[in-house]
């Protein structure tokens, strides 16, 4: 098994796992997948997992991933090889299950995870349907395992993230490593921060192409781990709306150099979370280009900035109140409208944010705060979410026919 001196999978191997795991729907191809030199040759030391995906109306159970022990390895430098590695890999979306995966992807809501943190309801539901299978595998080989590697692309990356948090909480002596490619955001900021602390930032490898739309969804308050940090940003020339940058085969091509290390990958990417940068963008009179992926990143950063600004001075809880008919757009609209009503200073920032969003969506801009009713704000936010989701769906559609 090829690992670095810090007991991490090398980028090429992590990417090959995330690419080839799509074969879990075919029994013959699963055997070929498990013949990789990364895995133990002993069949009894692996488990193919199935998951329930979709909703109450369209629900199916099919192959979703693999748990397996890593192969024995030769000593590399001063690397500790006295304990074995476990590898847990999850596939991304497929059309083979009546589009049930798509329902899980875009079932955007929040619920409390098994570790007590706010996460995406669709992703968490898939994880929970596999939790007992993962637990059985880990318990069966508990004394053999010191390192657990969780890997996935797209939807599989979100599930790998939630899985890594659960494993670290329930098997605290294990060293858990996370590798995701083009994954959507799996939970709120509280989840991302706790995950980063539990695993440590060096063990979280989030890889994304600059024009891949899927890592941009869902919008704030969903965020990525590690925090602080931006992940491994890879340049991509593919157009945002073509969604080609989401293809796992392209991700593999970007990291396939066997000499590449995690520290050597990626382009410098300045964070857009700094208050002064976001304020400058919100206050600028420049035009907004909806075909530039940076536009949607700035909108997300602006939404985060304004929401946090309002929450600091009001008694509203961001994580409460998602029961019943309250949607994410409803909740954010309530907070933004509260900011308008609270003070003139907050009102200015809400107006600026909504103007940027409406311009990006090709809507007529509302110039006055009184025009931004709860209904209008909710409509704009829902339209924004639908726009981002449409691009994300196209990206996912492009990878479902491997």
TrEMBL record:
Q: Which residues form the Fungal lipase-type domain?
A: 88-219
Concerning Pfam families, the annotation shows:
Lipase_3
Protein origin, superkingdom:
Bacteria
Supply the InterPro entries for this chain: AB_hydrolase_fold, Fungal_lipase-type, Sec_MonoDiacylglyc_Lipase
Cite the CDD domains for this sequence. Answer: Lipase_3
UniProt xrefs under PANTHER family? ALPHA/BETA-HYDROLASES SUPERFAMILY PROTEIN (PTHR45856), FUNGAL LIPASE-LIKE DOMAIN-CONTAINING PROTEIN (PTHR45856:SF24)
Protein name, as recorded: Lipase family protein
Could you tell me which species this protein originates from? Parendozoicomonas callyspongiae
């Amino acid at each position: 098994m090829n690992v670095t001196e810090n007991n991490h999978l090398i980028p090429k191997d992590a990417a090959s796992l995330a690419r080839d795991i799509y074969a879990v729907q075919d029994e013959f191809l699963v055997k070929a997948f498990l013949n990789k030199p990364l895995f133990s040759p002993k069949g009894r030391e692996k488990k193919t997992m199935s998951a329930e995906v979709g909703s109450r109306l369209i629900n199916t159970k099919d192959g979703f991933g693999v748990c397996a022990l890593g192969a024995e390895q030769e000593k590399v430098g001063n690397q500790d090889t006295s304990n074995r590695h476990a590898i847990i890999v999850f596939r991304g979306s497929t059309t083979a299950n009546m589009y049930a995966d798509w329902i899980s992807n875009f079932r955007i809501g929040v619920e409390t995870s098994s570790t007590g943190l706010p996460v995406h309801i669709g992703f968490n539901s898939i994880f929970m349907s596999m939790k007992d299978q993962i637990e059985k595998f880990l318990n069966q080989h508990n004394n053999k395992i010191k390192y657990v590697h969780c890997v996935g692309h797209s939807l599989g990356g979100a599930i790998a993230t939630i899985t890594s948090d659960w494993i670290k909480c329930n098997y605290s002596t294990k060293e858990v490593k996370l590798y995701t490619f083009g994954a959507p955001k799996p939970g709120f900021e509280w989840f991302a921060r706790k995950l980063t602390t539990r695993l440590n930032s060096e063990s979280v490898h989030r890889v994304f192409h600059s024009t891949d739309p899927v890592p941009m969804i869902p919008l704030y308050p969903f965020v990525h781990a590690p925090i602080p940090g931006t992940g491994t940003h890879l340049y991509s020339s593919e157009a945002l709306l073509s969604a080609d940058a989401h293809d796992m085969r392209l991700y593999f091509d970007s990291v396939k150099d066997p000499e590449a290390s995690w520290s050597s990958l990626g382009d410098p990417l300045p964070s857009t979370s700094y208050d002064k940068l976001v304020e400058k963008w919100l206050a600028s009179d420049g035009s907004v280009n909806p075909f530039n992926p940076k536009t949607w990143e700035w909108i997300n950063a602006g939404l985060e900035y304004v929401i946090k600004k309002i929450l600091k001075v009001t008694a509203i809880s961001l994580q409460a109140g998602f029961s019943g008919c309250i949607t994410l757009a409803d909740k954010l609209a309530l907070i933004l409208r509260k900011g308008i009503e609270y003070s003139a200073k907050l009102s200015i920032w809400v107006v600026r944010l909504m103007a940027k969003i409406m311009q990006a969506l090709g809507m007529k801009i509302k110039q006055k705060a009184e025009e931004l009713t709860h209904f209008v704000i909710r409509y704009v936010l829902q339209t924004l979410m639908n726009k981002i989701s449409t691009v994300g769906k196209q990206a996912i559609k492009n990878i479902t026919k491997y």
